[in-house]
Amino acid sequence: MTSHGQSVVDELKRLVAEGHISVEALHVITGVPADSVRALLGQAPLVAAGLSPKSAALAANENRRLSILTAQLTDGMQIGDDERLKGIVESLTIECHLTLENIAGLTGLDVHDLELALQAPQALSADKKYALATKSSYLINAINQARG
Q1: Alpha carbon distance 3, 9 (integer Å)
Q2: Model pLDDT for residues 47-68, shown as the tens digit of each residue
Q3: pTM confidence score
Q4: Contact predicate 41/8, CB 8 Å
Q5: Runs of H (alpha helix) within 23-98
């Protein structure tokens, strides 16, 4: 494992040890078998988990999913709320090809507020930020479920 890979394991160990996330949650979120996550984190002997050292190695796609989640749960949480709100709206427009008018129509939000979220989120009131964040996050969740 590279030093970056080791830092992912260390961060996952820390998150689990501090009770921020469980092995079961990691399994459900990423699809990586719980026994593989436990073996990766050194929580269960490979023999007890029914794994040999060779079978304990994660597939590339499993490693990628755990790495992305770890980065989002650690580094991603350091992003300020205004930048996160802007990122949510950008995600809907750039990745999902929705226009601001589409988002407004689907969520009942005001197009002007969506424009402000992209250009100057700090200019929005807390109530408008809350509405934008919750409705846009719900829309992203709906899209992700549809992508399945």
Answers
A1: 10
A2: 444 554 444 578 889 999 999 9
A3: 0.72
A4: no
A5: 23-30, 34-41, 53-56, 60-73, 81-90
